Amino acid sequence: MKRKVFFISDRTGITAEMFGQSLLSQFEEADFEELTIPFIDSVKKAESACRVIAEAEAETGLRPIVFDTIVTPEIRQIIQSSGAMVLDFFHTFIGPLETELGLSSGFRVGKTHSLTDGKAYDSRIDSVNFALNNDDGISTRHYNNADVILVGVSRCGKTPTSLYMAMQFGVKAANYPFTEDDMENLRLPADLKKHKQKIFGLTINPNRLHDIRTERKANSRYASLKQCQYEVREVEALYRREKITHLNTTSRSVEELATKIMASTGIKRQGF
Amino acid sequence: MKRKVFFISDRTGITAEMFGQSLLSQFEEADFEELTIPFIDSVKKAESACRVIAEAEAETGLRPIVFDTIVTPEIRQIIQSSGAMVLDFFHTFIGPLETELGLSSGFRVGKTHSLTDGKAYDSRIDSVNFALNNDDGISTRHYNNADVILVGVSRCGKTPTSLYMAMQFGVKAANYPFTEDDMENLRLPADLKKHKQKIFGLTINPNRLHDIRTERKANSRYASLKQCQYEVREVEALYRREKITHLNTTSRSVEELATKIMASTGIKRQGF
User: I need a surface site. Which of A78, A120, A254, B75 has the fewest CB within 10 A?
Assistant: First the structure.
């Protein structure tokens, strides 16, 4: 029987999942069944969550584990009484922070990721739209508004990285592909040259690129290992020639790529 | 002087930021200056982070606050000795979890969000590509592979929501706009009708829509309040007629929209 794990929140449950999963990932041998219960913002809902937890214990014979990010003390106490092992995010840290700051906390639901109110949120949505409107070299007209321009061969990871940067950091990331037609005598197009200080290169292992492109267009010249090797070689040579900072995407997550690009370029995060 | 806050991690720092910012957001009156220090994965880097922390204290006269998600005990101890108030994510919770599970944790760096290894990561990237390839009704051919199809008027929030669902939950979300041409005699196009059980409607306050469209195309018919009111009225009538579940995006964050859609449709999250 797998032990049941619950992520419980008065909001979306995304922080609770992150909180719990990053801890559970440290226990590789253990096997869990995970369930998120979001929007527990009333006594009634909390009591109904407790019943689900009790059923999980009856079913598995194992004490469930609860990771919660509930702000309201009254609702949190109901979850605490569920019989599960409850690891409580706010309760654990708010006390010490209140002491250190000499302030009382607001205990207000929905203040984490309060994206709706104003600037941070608008900036992220603007940035997502920017990434979409400036994806794949569709347009180069707005490069003066870009924080960064990611370049690289087709399918090396430019689009997910620019979207992630927009969504997580509110950063305006355009991206521009070097295509097959560019390869013979590869150089920076004039539109890019003008914004050279904003360019950041991505590269990838040719074998991995071959796999990705094969998935998309099997048995094409585009996907052939030979073509992948050729394009990667030419693009990496360009990076060296033009002294373009670059990263290999092959074994890096989008999070890691985005963070490294932020650190390397010094672009400021807009926060959540 | 603002008190300085550091988010320190041996990886990207994204969990550390989420950890710290969700707590700091409970202290509305306080004013912080935030800095993320990612990739602190050696003794040398940890010592250099300590120097930055000490300088912050000397500069502001206020004890800095550190939120860290460092896994390795040796490196964590160096940060603990920095003189700051250190709130440590792993150290706080891993002990109780080890006791409860009767297991030792792995203390392995980079196991949180280990997206690179395999399925979860590929599924998220696939889903981002799916969202992009099926954005804005560009193509309806792949709707049989979609987990959900978001519909609504132009600029009501479909694209960011489908991208967020892809990125956070690995869910394949297509989206389809009802345009001005559709409005007179609005009904579900045949391509959508076939997949009616997958359709989820978005709507928006006409005044907010007017603001958003004005930003994009000022003084156009498209952006006029009258047109916005008309489109929203027609689309909401369609939702009622066809009994399409729908949400108003006006004062909801993308996270909240995505989570509510997941809960309402019962689509399973793919985890991080």
Answer: A120
